[in-house]
Structures are given as structure tokens and as C-alpha cells.
């Protein structure tokens, strides 16, 4: 064993494949191979190791090679959160800066027609911790609702509504103004279920025709970051994101310089 060896589950988690605990289960289930041999829990690997997960080769990066990075992206309508799409639709990854030896991991997803705040990081473990249900993080959305929401509707949405995948609720609803059938509301949820905001309003017979995420935990979209643009978080902001996830930031965050702040849409 050398000083550069690391626990296999830590390397897999950093690659964005899941949490360390999930990777431990994957190793125990025989889903991971190192240099062509099925790995065992407790194995350590060096940077030159050839690692395969479910038969697919995995690119890994040394933890000391580069500091972890976090981007904030203001997603427009008409982009998917997958890297590739059989229909040829544009991906949120298309506008992000290119990386060598690393990859961007998307923290959660937004629907094709939903706009607003998306976080990306090169630290897969951070991404998985931010998305895990045990890490309770507020997501705030601005939504335009077609129809008239009554006081009974509002009470039901805050108290909780039975959806097909379990009870869901808004922890807060704030009137955002508007007249007639088009009314704006700010709503807060604590989960990231598929189409959760839209489905909650639909449970009350109301339709959302505009939806934008404006906050993820303590991270807001800066006014200077227009739709289709990204900004890289400064080291202090990255440390705050690690604190939000409940994990300690790597030492590299402490000593890194302030990065380039903004990139225009291409």
C-alpha cells in the first residue's frame, strides 16, 4: 500500500456514482471490478487502477489533483438534465466549461420546461449528499398558476396532499402577485421528487404554466447571471455549500484562489 492509495468506496463516491455507503453496498454485491477482478469491501486502489462499475469503465481523479468546483447555472426552458438525449434536445451540460480528468455532476434535476437554479460540482460525494433525503434542504420556486387558488387549497397544500408516490406538501406559500387567472406564488419544498411542485398544484385542480427555481438551500441566483449563463462559486461560497451538505470541505477549498465568476451563454 502506498500513500496515494484510497478506499475504493471513496473513489467511487467522488466520481459521482453514489454515496460512500451506497458504494460499499455495490462493492459487496460484486458490481465493481478493479484491474479486471471483482472487488471486495475494504479494498484500496491507487490512481492507476482500472475500475469498472456495472461493466462500465469509470474515470477517476486524484483528490489532490484539483480543488473541488461548484457552478451555479441559470437553466432556460428546453434543456434536459441528462448528458445525452435520443431526441437530440439540448442538454444543460452543453453550456458548461470543459473539464480534463473530471466531470460535472448535476445536483438534482429540473424538468424540460422548468427554469432556474441548478448546481453542478466536480465532487460526486458532495452532490450525492446534497441530493440525499436525509439532508433536508429547502428548494424555493416561483410559479405562475392558472386558476383561482382558494384558502382551502392553500391549507391543503401546506398540510399535505396524498400523491401517487406518497404525501407531499409545501412548507411555505407566499403570494407573488398577479391578477385574473395568472397568479404568481413563491413556494418551498423540502424534497426533489419528479414534478412535485406541478403535481401539488394539480391536486387542487390548478395548472402551473411557468416554473422557476430561485433558491437551493442558502444559494440564490445572482441577478447578474442571466438565463443560459453560469457562475463559478468562490471558495467561501463553496465552503458554505459543503456546510449545507453537512460534510467538511477538502483542504483544497481553503487555499484556492477566487475563480472566474461568470460565463455568457453560447
From TrEMBL:
SUPFAM superfamilies: Alpha-L RNA-binding motif, Pseudouridine synthase. It catalyses: uridine(2605) in 23S rRNA = pseudouridine(2605) in 23S rRNA. InterPro entries: PsdUridine_s_RsuA/RluB/E/F_cat, PsdUridine_synth_cat_dom_sf, PsdUridine_synth_RsuA/RluA, PsdUridine_synth_RsuA/RluB/E/F, PsdUridine_synth_RsuA/RluB_CS, RsuA_PseudoU_synthase, S4_RNA-bd, S4_RNA-bd_sf. It is an enzyme of class 5 (isomerase). The keyword Ribosomal protein does not apply. The keyword RNA-binding applies. Its EC number is 5.4.99.-. Residues 6-76 form the RNA-binding S4 domain. Signal peptide: none annotated. Transmembrane segments: none annotated. GO terms for molecular function: 23S rRNA pseudouridine(2605) synthase activity; RNA binding. Keywords: Isomerase, RNA-binding, rRNA processing. One of its GO terms (cellular component) is cytosol. PROSITE patterns: PSI_RSU (PS01149), S4 (PS50889). Gene3D superfamilies: Alpha-L RNA-binding motif (3.30.70.1560), Pseudouridine synthase I, catalytic domain, N-terminal subdomain (3.30.70.580), RNA-binding S4 domain (3.10.290.10). Pfam families: PseudoU_synth_2, S4. Responsible for synthesis of pseudouridine from uracil-2605 in 23S ribosomal RNA. Belongs to the pseudouridine synthase RsuA family. This is Pseudouridine synthase. It comes from Spongiibacter nanhainus.
Amino acid at each position: 500500500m502506498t500513500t496515494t492509495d484510497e478506499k475504493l468506496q471513496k473513489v467511487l463516491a467522488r466520481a459521482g456514482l453514489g454515496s460512500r455507503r451506497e458504494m460499499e453496498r455495490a462493492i459487496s454485491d460484486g458490481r465493481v471490478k478493479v484491474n479486471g477482478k471483482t472487488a471486495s469491501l475494504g479494498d484500496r486502489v491507487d490512481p492507476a487502477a482500472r475500475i469498472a462499475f456495472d461493466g462500465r469503465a469509470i474515470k477517476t481523479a486524484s483528490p489532490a489533483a484539483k480543488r473541488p468546483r461548484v457552478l451555479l447555472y441559470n437553466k432556460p426552458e428546453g434543456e434536459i438534465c441528462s448528458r445525452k438525449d435520443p431526441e437530440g434536445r439540448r442538454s444543460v451540460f452543453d453550456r458548461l466549461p470543459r473539464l480534463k480528468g473530471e466531470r460535472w455532476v448535476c445536483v438534482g434535476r429540473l424538468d424540460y420546461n422548468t427554469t432556474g437554479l441548478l448546481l453542478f460540482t466536480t465532487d460526486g460525494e458532495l452532490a450525492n449528499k446534497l441530493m440525499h433525503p436525509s439532508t433536508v434542504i429547502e428548494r424555493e420556486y416561483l410559479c405562475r398558476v392558472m386558476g383561482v387558488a382558494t384558502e382551502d387549497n392553500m391549507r391543503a397544500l401546506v398540510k399535505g396532499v396524498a400523491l401517487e408516490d406518497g404525501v407531499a406538501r409545501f412548507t411555505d406559500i407566499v403570494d407573488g402577485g398577479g391578477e385574473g387567472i395568472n397568479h404568481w406564488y413563491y413556494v418551498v419544498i423540502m424534497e426533489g421528487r419528479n414534478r412535485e411542485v406541478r403535481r401539488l398544484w394539480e391536486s387542487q385542480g390548478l395548472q402551473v404554466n411557468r416554473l422557476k427555481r430561485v433558491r437551493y438551500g442558502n444559494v440564490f441566483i445572482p441577478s447578474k447571471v442571466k438565463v443560459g449563463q453560469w457562475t463559478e462559486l468562490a471558495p467561501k461560497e463553496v465552503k458554505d455549500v459543503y456546510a449545507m451538505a453537512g460534510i467538511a470541505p477538502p483542504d483544497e477549498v481553503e487555499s484556492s484562489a477566487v475563480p472566474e465568476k461568470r460565463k455568457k451563454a453560447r
